[in-house]
């Protein structure tokens, strides 16, 4: 059978010839939570993957956050948990930096045995929206920003996580250190390995920033003309950061809110909208005016944000990130050069006008985030939705009027009932995702947290 992704045997043969040192390859399939699932194969098995694919159980896409089956997805016993075919994605076979013995990785997509895309694969959900936009003559370009914490492997005396010491000299700091270049210097050996890992993977990682919490950093990614590649970059960069931090004796943390007293970590998504000629339809038609398509796109994103929040904030911890004046939006507002709003129009040349979508936490699945945002853009453009007035000043004022759900349970309910989200993700992906989230909610609800003992053990 011909590989349905378009990957060729010649690609694998050329890679093996160029990298005789590679001994093994990670096969990476992304589940609904954005977690890398798969297998590690030996070098001699690689060509067979490109010729014949590799059998993966269908249940791999119906797992919860801890890797247990969620029967309500319909992917387990309803279908006998049979094997489907995972196939390599073209251009994603790359070496892994700083591995012993030397390894590579390749991203995989899951397909039915007859070659049709398996519709609970989150990457296929994004591909479907990209194809729909192409049919409408639009070709979104995008990039993600990656925020994360570097933590000490050891907890403090109270069992709390704490910022990692500098790998250069072991120096510690409990200060915010936002935008401190000297603070960044202490992590340069690790950052150098992260940049090298990105380079060998074909990812253009750019600016490193010390962010708005102790131990928090931001790494930006180069803009991509293909949204699928932008999402691939984000997932791969998370794996690179995690692996290189571990090699340096630290923990890279992608929880949305690991430290209660400080800001959480976002995954801002920047998107512009070229047409078939390459012209950005978001570009200002004249000085002091906004392109109608930009305004309609903002209107679509505002109109669909409330029912989409489970995609942007998929876990209980995700919801701890949202608070007034925390750099995490709490309303569906939009504004220009304003970091207190959900939808920001950054400063810059009118020809490269873009929307920065700010609600998502770094714990979200970038394929589902991008698919949902593109679907919101399409709805706004089709229906000519008015975004309402621009927010100026403090975007947290009036947040009580927001249509964003106020907690995880409300977000799960809104997402489950949402016809928009069902269309955005596809019916099967929507069912899989919401069932996995409901199962995670049930797991959390039956778990007794430490705060219960702190509040009630000796009192009630």
Structure description:
This protein is of the alpha+beta class and 460 residues long. It has 2 domains: 9-118, Ubiquitin-like (UB roll) (Roll), CATH 3.10.20.70; 133-451, Glutamine synthetase/guanido kinase, catalytic domain (Creatine Kinase, Chain A, domain 2, 2-Layer Sandwich), CATH 3.30.590.10. It is built from 12 helices and 14 strands. Strands 7, 8, 9, 10, 11, 12, 13 and 14 form an 8-stranded mixed beta sheet that branches. Strands 1, 2, 3, 4, 5 and 6 form a 6-stranded mixed beta sheet that branches. A hairpin with a 5-residue loop joins strand 1 (24-30) and strand 2. Helix 5 packs across helix 6 and helix 8 (366-383) crosses helix 10. It starts with 8 loop residues before the first helix and ends with a helix. The mean pLDDT is 92.
How do the strands and helices of this protein lay out in sequence?
Layout: H1 9-18, E1 24-30, E2 36-42, H2 46-52, E3 54-57, E4 83-88, E5 94-95, E6 103-111, H3 122-135, E7 141-152, H4 181-185, H5 188-200, E8 205-210, E9 216-221, H6 227-247, E10 250-253, E11 269-272, H7 292-312, E12 334-336, E13 343-345, E14 355-357, H8 366-383, H9 408-417, H10 419-425, H11 427-445, H12 450-456
Parallel strand pairs: 1-6, 12-13
Antiparallel strand pairs: 1-2, 3-4, 4-6, 5-6, 7-9, 7-10, 7-11, 8-9, 11-14, 13-14
């Amino acid at each position: 059978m011909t590989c349905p992704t378009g990957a060729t045997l010649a690609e694998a043969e050329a890679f093996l010839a160029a990298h005789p040192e590679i001994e093994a390859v990670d096969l990476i399939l992304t589940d609904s939570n954005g977690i890398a699932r798969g297998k590690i194969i030996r070098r001699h098995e690689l060509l067979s993957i490109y010729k014949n694919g590799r059998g993966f159980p269908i249940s791999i896409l119906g797992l919860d956050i801890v890797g247990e089956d969620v029967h309500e997805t319909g992917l387990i016993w309803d279908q006998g948990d049979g094997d489907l075919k995972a196939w390599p994605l073209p251009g994603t076979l790359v070496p892994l930096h700083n591995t012993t013995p030397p390894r590579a990785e390749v991203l995989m997509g899951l397909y039915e045995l007859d070659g049709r895309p398996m519709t609970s694969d989150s990457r296929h959900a994004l591909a479907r929206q990209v194809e729909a936009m192409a049919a409408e003559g639009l070709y979104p370009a995008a990039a993600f920003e990656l925020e994360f914490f570097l933590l000490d492997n050891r907890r403090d005396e109270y069992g709390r996580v704490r910022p990692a010491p500098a790998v250069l000299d072991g120096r510690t700091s409990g200060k915010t250190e936002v935008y401190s270049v000297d603070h960044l210097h202490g992590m340069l050996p690790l950052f150098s390995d992260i940049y090298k890992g990105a380079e060998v993977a074909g990812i253009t990682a750019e600016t490193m920033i010390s962010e708005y919490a102790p131990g928090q950093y931001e790494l930006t990614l180069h803009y991509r003309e293909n949204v699928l590649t932008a999402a691939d970059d984000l997932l791969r960069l998370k794996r690179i950061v995690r692996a290189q931090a571990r090699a340096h004796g630290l923990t890279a943390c992608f929880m949305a809110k690991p430290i209660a007293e400080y800001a959480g970590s976002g995954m801002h998504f920047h998107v512009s909208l070229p047409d078939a000629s390459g012209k950005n339809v978001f570009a200002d038609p004249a000085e002091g005016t906004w392109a109608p398509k930009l305004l309609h796109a903002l209107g679509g994103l505002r109109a669909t944000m409330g029912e989409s929040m489970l995609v942007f904030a998929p876990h209980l911890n995700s919801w701890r990130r949202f608070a007034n004046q925390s750099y995490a939006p709490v309303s569906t507002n939009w504004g220009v050069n304003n970091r207190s709003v959900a939808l920001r129009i950054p400063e810059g040349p009118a020809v490269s006008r873009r929307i920065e979508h700010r609600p998502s936490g770094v714990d979200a699945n970038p394929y589902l985030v991008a698919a949902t945002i593109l679907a919101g853009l399409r709805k706004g453009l089709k229906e000519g939705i008015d975004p309402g007035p621009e927010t100026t000043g403090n975007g947290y004022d009036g947040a009580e009027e927001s249509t964003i759900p106020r907690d995880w349970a409300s977000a799960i309910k809104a997402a489950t009932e949402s016809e928009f989200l069902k269309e955005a993700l596809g019916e099967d992906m929507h069912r899989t995702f919401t069932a996995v989230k409901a199962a995670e909610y049930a797991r959390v609800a039956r778990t007794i947290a430490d705060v219960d003992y702190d509040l009630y053990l000796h009192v009630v």
